[in-house]
Design a protein that fits this description.
Elements lengths: L2 H8 L11 E6 L38 E3 L18 H15 L4 H11 L2 H24 L6 E6 L3 H17 L4 H33 L4 E4 L5 H16 L5 H23 L6 E5 L22 E8 L3 E2 L12 E4 L3 E5 L4 E5 L2 H18 L5 H10 L2 E2 L11 E2 L2 H10 L5 H11 L23
Parallel strand pairs: 1-3, 1-4, 2-3, 4-5, 5-6, 6-8
Antiparallel strand pairs: 6-7, 9-10, 11-12
Length: 450
């Protein structure tokens, strides 16, 4: 492990006192037994654990630490998936970090290249990373936040929903339906239905979080054009019997992503007291041109986060956008908790950047509990460290500055918000460049962002 080196390069955050603002982690599940999280999980005191009774009458049996919205039960982590762990996954993630730091040997790079050409390994690391994702995110939210309360909200992947749509397409083909009919009334209506279905799940989650006093919700997931292309292409191939033109793929992909954004916007607007923090996406693309959902939702209670290398560079995999990405936060080589065995592994992605902002948002709320979601967002946006390398890459063109944000939050208890932000900008300096990152030595060729 290279914990100390990672801290040097990517910045050990200054411990900050929290007063237990509840943060929801909307993700693949959270390992509530992990040492980093066991004492920081939100607990439903009105429910009796494992008695198979809905004690509080909320329609959810034994929802002690959250709810599994994918399967409609209380299993917020499926420990059976721990079997997906392989020692070479841990080695690969550690060597990814070494390559980024410029310390990986040529032999180690050859080993990583061989792993990436092994379909079985690629499937294994993607499966394990998906399983560990929510726990890793939760660990970032809880870091340097001893009184953190993490509520887990497990969700169903878009890929699973598309598998069901593919079955309907096959049935239509078998029934001899017209190609145009299948494209317009099976595929497009099916995608519209998926968007509505996802929105309904969002609504259920929003209602649950609101009822249980959640102030901040982290969503390190999404569907962008790259993912949407991968989802719609097999459907179009099945209908047309050949590889569809790129323009047609993009038409359907864009249609799907925009429908999701439209539906999610309606739902998230219903919960103005919750600040939703979303990852910008890992395609290295411009969200202004190729939108990402739910990162493309533009509301006063939504903030979208891109990934930086510490505070000194733009992560090459990170999505950006002058109007659709709000700010950046470190998201390269972030070491955090992964399920069982009290393990910690370094991962990279905007999925790691968003919970860093969610963590700071929770501490802002702790510093001044009277702040509304839109005001927390205003503080986060108004107290960034502005960076030249982010010019035109985000609305704020800056990286989150936790110390300055908390200074503004504290001052806001006795003065108006804008004055508090101005005072914090005067009194709290930008953070000094962190680490020894060397553009000439760093190698991102082997990074698989999550």
């Amino acid at each position: 492990m290279k914990t100390n080196l990672c801290a040097i390069l990517f910045g050990a955050m200054v411990p900050l006192t929290a007063q237990a603002t509840t943060v929801a982690v909307i993700d693949s599940g959270v390992d509530y037994e992990h040492e980093a999280l066991a004492e920081k999980m939100w607990t439903n005191t009105a429910e009796t654990d494992a008695d198979k009774t809905d004690n509080d009458g909320n329609g959810k049996i034994d929802d002690i630490h959250g709810w599994n919205f994918a399967d409609n039960d209380a299993m917020i982590i499926d420990y059976a998936l721990q079997a997906k762990y392989r020692p070479d996954i841990e080695k690969f993630l550690e060597l990814q970090l070494a390559a980024i730091e410029g310390t990986a040997t040529e032999g180690e790079k050859i080993w990583m290249k061989e792993r990436l050409s092994d379909a079985d390994f690629v499937n294994s690391i993607q499966t394990y990373a998906g399983y560990a994702h929510g726990t890793h995110v939760a660990g970032i939210v809880a870091r340097d936040n001893p009184q953190a309360k993490i509520l887990a909200a497990k969700i169903l992947s878009t890929k699973t929903m598309f598998q069901r749509l593919r079955d309907r397409v096959r049935q239509s083909i078998a029934a001899g339906k017209d190609v145009g009919f299948i494209q317009e009334f099976v595929i497009k209506l099916g995608m519209y239905g998926i968007a509505i279905q996802q929105a309904k799940i969002f609504d259920q989650i929003g209602a649950y979080l609101s009822t249980n006093g959640v102030s901040v919700a982290n969503g390190s997931f999404g569907t962008g054009m790259e993912q949407a292309r991968g989802l719609v292409t097999p459907l179009l191939i099945a209908v047309l019997g050949t590889q569809p033109p790129a323009e047609l793929i993009d038409e359907y992909a864009s249609f799907f992503v925009q429908r999701i954004i439209d539906q999610q916007s309606k739902i998230l607007a219903k919960y103005p007291d919750i600040l939703f923090v979303f990852a910008a996406g890992n395609d290295g693309s411009d969200n202004d041109r190729l939108p990402e959902a739910p990162a493309g939702v533009r509301l006063e209670n939504v903030i979208t986060v891109g990934a930086s290398i510490g505070n000194i560079g733009l992560a090459p995999f990170s999505n950006y956008g002058a109007s659709r990405v709000d700010l950046f936060a470190p998201g390269v080589g972030t070491r955090s908790s992964v399920p069982r065995q009290n393990m910690y592994l370094p991962m990279s992605g905007t999925s790691m950047s968003a919970p860093e902002v969610a963590r700071v948002a929770a501490l802002i709320k702790d510093a001044n509990p009277n702040l509304k979601a839109a005001e927390i967002r205003e503080i986060l946006m108004g107290t960034i460290d502005r960076k030249d390398f982010l010019k035109g890459r985000s609305y704020s063109e800056g990286i989150v500055n936790d110390e300055r944000a908390l200074a503004a939050a504290s001052s806001s208890k006795s003065t108006d918000l804008r004055s508090a932000i101005k005072a914090a900008k005067r009194t709290v300096a930008d953070k000094a460049p962190i680490g020894k990152y060397d553009n000439a030595m760093a190698d991102f060729s082997y990074v698989t962002p999550f």
